[in-house]
């Protein structure tokens, strides 16, 4: 079993206070660790046994709170992967959740944390959709964005960000807002040629001029990230 930890620095990173992470997970299993543990220790197994994330955050989340934080989590990789999120209004000293995320009509949702807040009730999540079963080359597929307008009580698919990736993958977006209409995200990519260790890896950038409704390829700021 894994234990999920959380670290906090109050002096610019010179020292860190490390503790067990103060949030609930399905069945008490480790956060986003299913690809690294045997099945009986997985969050997916806990969900199958009827220990789900809660459907939605009650009256809603105040995304504009000055001490707000949000964290996304997932079971594993590939089709059937389920995702949820947590919220905090005290700088992550405590967390509320887990709140279930929908599947958005995708084979699976491999959620990492990437979000942009635009108001008390409005937040855009950037997520990865699986292409197929884990181990089939189907894990880690396309990056898309989803948006809530009601404090996280519901999310709607907004748009697909990345283009076709073939047998490779596009995952782990990192996004910023440049203006009321302009968003930019960078995405970790791997090509389909070669073995897992030898396939080319890089970072691509995408830009939206209509607040995330459509995207265009911007360029490759990092042509080689190593292996």
Give a written overview of the molecule.
The protein is an all-beta fold and 227 residues long. The strands form 4 sheets. Strands 6-7-8-9 form a 4-stranded antiparallel β-sheet, with no helix packed on it. A hairpin with a 7-residue loop joins strand 4 and strand 5. It contains 1 helix and 13 strands. The model has no long low-confidence stretch (mean pLDDT 91).
User: What spatial order of strands do you see in the largest sheet?
Assistant: 6-7-8-9
**Sheet with the most strands, sense and barrel status:** 4 strands, antiparallel
Rg (CA only):
18 Å
DSSP strand tally: 13
Strand content: 25-35%
Q: Structural class of the helices, strands and pairings?
A: mainly beta
**Proportion of residues in helical segments:** under 10%
How far is the first residue's CA from the last residue's CA? 27 Å
Annotation field: number of helices: 1
The low-confidence runs, each spanning 5 or more residues with pLDDT under 50, are: none
- Helix and strand run: EEHEEEEEEEEEEE
Task: Give the topology, please.
Elements (H helix, E strand, L loop, with lengths): L4 E4 L8 E4 L22 H6 L20 E6 L8 E6 L7 E5 L14 E3 L5 E7 L12 E7 L7 E5 L8 E9 L5 E8 L10 E8 L7 E7 L5
Antiparallel strand pairs: 1-2, 3-4, 4-5, 6-7, 7-8, 8-9, 10-11, 11-12, 12-13
Notable features of this structure?
227 residues, mainly beta, 4-stranded antiparallel sheet, 13 strands
Write a brief caption for the model.
The chain has one helix at 43-48, and strands spanning 5-8, 17-20, 69-74, 83-88, 96-100, 115-117, 123-129, 142-148, 156-160, 169-177, 183-190, 201-208, 216-222. Strand 12 (201-208) and strand 13 form a beta hairpin.
